[in-house]
Amino acid sequence: MTSLWRAGAVMLAGAVLALVSGRAATAQGTGIMAGVVDARQAHEDYMLKCQGCHRPDGSGDDRTAPPMRDTVARFLGVPGGRAFLGRVPGVATTNLDDRRLTNLLNWTLYRFDPAHVPAGFAPYTPEEIGRLRADPIRLDRVETRARLVAAFPQR
Amino acid sequence: MIGFDKLAERLTRSVARQSSRRSLLALLGAGITGAAAFPVLPVARAAGHAGGPAHQPVTSGNPQDPGDRTSCDYWRYCAIDGFLCTCCGGSVNACPPGTEMSPITWIGTCTNPADNRAYIISYNDCCGVSSCGQCLCNRNEGDRPQVRPQSNNDYNWCIGAQSSVYNCSTAVIVGLALDKPL
């Protein structure tokens, strides 16, 4: 009798879990990511071009590749930050064409830092990325980043 | 029992009568010399090394993941450069005991012969113990020159680990590449 009860409890728990995860999946699915043409392609490109150093969850660390999680979209809120994201070497020198790189960069903002994407955010366009990456930041990337991070509004 | 006694005594005495202590030394000396020369003879020594595998094959048992994981020809090793953890006390997905898997890794794609699809492979290095020295592989497919550090496998990818001492490399599947790129 007890084992039957236990089995019932497990089944119930399973059903609740399935319901909850199903709802989470729907919520994620309905989120519209402006400027992202193909989210699966963006995820694949992230795995191939970024994840090796920035980690699967974008956490990074300050010793190697800087963190993007809960940070990357904050650059959009400071002067020069939008251009920085297109000119930073990891973005500018990646061997992807402008279209795929734009898809990837816009996706990265929504994927790792949705809370800080500004309300009226105009997504990057391939033309803008093509212009920004033609003038990549070189040796002063660490100082440039530190200067922009220092300008982040405190909250 | 008396019979045994008599037999042993007779044998001993006959040996003592017929041999000197010096002849025993000569016999032993000849034996030692002969024993030293004997292993040099080509008695099927080849079977111990070149003919046979240095490691027992390790397979997944899954037809979707074919091949011997101790061989450089295993499909996931298409861009590897280093020692196989499978030969070093770890596995294709796990580091040997006593080492730490680096969080920073070199990532590429390899084609699985079972379904001819491209899988995204992460070559996480295992770090903290000196080089394993077993099963060195260097296939480098898709390897880029060092001016593209994120796609070059000659760098030491132990940079993110506690210790930068390299031990061996794993080949972890992290995803499936799309059939048609954007």
UniProtKB/TrEMBL annotation, chain B:
Principal subcellular localization: periplasm
Top-level enzyme category: oxidoreductase
Enzyme Commission number, as recorded: 1.4.9.1
Pathway(s) served: One-carbon metabolism; methylamine degradation; formaldehyde from methylamine: step 1/1
Gene3D superfamilies (UniProt xref): Methylamine/Aralkylamine dehydrogenase light chain (2.60.30.10)
Catalytic residues in the record: W106 (tryptophylquinone 6'-substrate hemiaminal intermediate), D125 (proton acceptor)
Family annotation (InterPro entries): Amine_DH_Ltc, MADH/AADH_L_sf, MADH/AADH_Ltc_C_dom, TAT_signal
Family: Belongs to the aromatic amine dehydrogenase light chain family.
Name of the protein in question: Methylamine dehydrogenase (amicyanin)
Naturally occurring in which organism (per UniProt): Novosphingobium nitrogenifigens DSM 19370
Lineage: Bacteria, Pseudomonadati, Pseudomonadota, Alphaproteobacteria, Sphingomonadales
